[in-house]
Amino acid sequence: MEDMIVVQGLSQFYGKKQALRDVTLTVEKGMFGLLGRNGAGKTTLMRTLAALLPVARGSVAVCGVSAGETGKIRRMIGYLPQDFSMYPSMTVEGALDYLGILSDVPKETRRKRIPELLERVNLTEQRGKRIKALSGGMKRRLGIAQALLHEPPVLIVDEPTAGLDPEERVRFRNLLCETAEDRIVILSTHIVGDVEAACSNAAILDEGRLIWNGSVESLLKAAEGRVFSCTVPRKELPLLQEHYIVTEISARGSESDVRLLAPEGMAVPAQARAAEPSAEDAYLYCLCRCGGER
Amino acid sequence: MELFLKECGRVARSLSYLILAAAMVIFAWSQLPPIFSETISKPQPGSGNYGIRQTDDPEVIMPAAIGGLYREFKENHYTTYPIGFIRNVRLNEAETAEMAAILSELSGVSAEKLLSQAAEAAGGQKDPAGEGTVTLSMDGGTIRETDGGGFEIEMDPVQGGPPGEGAPGTGGIREDTLLPAEGLGYERFIELMDRADHILGGGSDYGEDSVSGFGSVPAQYEDALAEYAAFVRTDRVSGAYARIFCDYMGIAAALLPVFPAVALGLADRRARMRELVGSRSISSAKLTAVRYASLVTMAMLPILLLAVLGTASVFQLYAGSGLEISPIAFLFYVPGWVLPTVMTSTAVGMFITELTGTPAAIFVMLLWWLADLNAGIAQMHGVYGGMPLIPRHNTLRGAQEFLDHFGALAASRVFYTVLALILVCLTAFVYEKNRRGTGSGIFGSAVLRRGNGRLASQ
């Protein structure tokens, strides 16, 4: 079985609206970040990979299995949707057991694996608690546990850190990294920091188009020499914002420290110094280069 | 099996199911105790009253039905049950004239005379017993309040006067009775009665399917003895009680199971769990079938428990009678009679909920339930044919009538079982479609995919 996902010329539609436009992408074992604005088509791509949307045009193969073979795909995919919950009156353990049955996991295996997974996601103490009593972070961790229950070779997580506090976000990211050691993990997010911290490879979607695909280092490299910082009087800020993509502003009395992007061929402000690009700078630079910032 | 038990547990813990179970118990508790305290004893010769039996003899049905219609015509006050509830109908002038024409053809009495009688009655019924007293006319006689506050019953003379004045089969009019016209055929009688039913807006006792209800005659000792023999030998006592138990529980079973079916159908959406469930490896057919089986099983559970109680009650009621009582009659009747109704109600609930993503199934079942109940209201003592969702047999007696119509009852039960299974297959099909599109139902989110013209959902 090939340990990769191959997407070729994928287009998806919602009525007249085209959600994905001719997307071609290969995802290999490890953490893969999928970046893009809200509405860029990330969730559509995730759902297509999880066999929750049929392929309209193009092809998708998950570990060598065509997306049309929904039964096989469902066995290979662990999916954590963006907006999910579980039956509120079920206990944590009961919900995992129920979903394990729906995944055809034998009783003995469930009996062994559920406590292990709860331990791994740090929910052992909550195993008897009802779902409605869990915090948002706990629910997300339980979501990962349910997605790993049938030991799928592919884990797809859609916006898993949205709404989590910083501590919970870091814990969740680390959990995903551990999980990615022996499988493909696709992390869809619009939080660039999560991709920078956890993923070796990433892709950027914009208005349904794949505008960038490669390693995170190469994304940073593409922005090298295009990120600048300078200190300007506050009254000059509007003028600066009119001409450049300002990625950061720190107020300092009557002046402001500004971080800006200057696309190739554009003159740089005289007082600006070249700066080391962050992943967020690189992401915004990529979006700007391919379609302009909004 | 594990999934089935889990689903049963989910059903049992749902509020809608607890309401269903409570409603079934309350319904049974409010309706059945008087019946389960009534015993049937062997008829004794010469006791005089052996009850009523139904006959399909036109000589009985025609005069009774024509007389009934004439009484309501004179008062211009008709009682109908168009959607299961009583409705009092008053006809306008044109309709009254049309009704008079029908009665005229039925009786041979001129429409003018009938209309003048009606006008006279509308102008105030003259009371021969004096002002302020109450007079009630009925089949075969009159009850009149006497000065002392008592009542006097005056029987009509035996029919057989001169032609045109009330002899049976010769037509005519008497104080409160209109008799069939000479040469009136039964088929024509049915046609005219059905027309009268249409004028009344349907749901009256005169409709083609209901008019035979006028064929009630006093039972004879031999009839009563034959019925008792059927009660003892065919029903083995508990069979009679099982039938009436099914008659009542069928009413509850046709409506109540739709509630948990809808609630559980919407639970995945409400709990935002549709994608979690949809991405699992279980097939849509298996998941739908198991969920359906658990809903039907749980809906049947209170009925079966009540059936066990019913059996115990019958044993207690006939303790020491020396009669042989069947311990399994309820267990034979309940699955055969009530289960197809539960299966249908549940399947309709699941299918419409999956199709629309709304609780619309409740309204659909409510309308169906009312219509079916109404269709059987005039013949509660035996509705088996015409594919009723709720077959009726609202009497402890009538074992032979039940056996006579067993084929029609079995056909309706098989029909609803097959219909329910077809709906379950369709539910699985729609679920798979929705699961592949993660929509909230075909009508809720289906859109035409421009790429290849196939259906997809958002």
Q: Can you describe this structure?
A:
Chain A is built from ten helices and 14 strands. Chain A has helices at residues 42-49, 70-76, 92-102, 107-120, 136-148, 166-179, 192-198, 216-222, 237-243, 279-291; strands at residues 4-14, 17-28, 30-36, 57-62, 65-66, 77-80, 154-158, 184-189, 201-206, 209-215, 227-233, 245-252, 255-261, 273-274. In chain A, the strands form three sheets. Chain A has a six-stranded mixed beta sheet, sandwiched between helices. In chain A, strand 7 (154-158), helix 6 (166-179) and strand 8 (184-189) form a beta-alpha-beta unit. The longest helix of chain A has 14 residues, at 107-120. Chain A is globular. Chain B is globular and about 80 Å long. Chain B has a three-stranded antiparallel beta sheet with strand order 4-5-6, with no helix packed on it. A two-stranded antiparallel ribbon of chain B has the order 1-9. In chain B, strands 2-3 form a two-stranded antiparallel sheet. Chain B is 56% helix and 8% strand. The two termini of chain B are 34 Å apart. The longest helix of chain B has 34 residues, at 284-317. With 458 residues, chain B is mainly alpha-helical. The interface between A and B is large, with 39 and 32 residues.
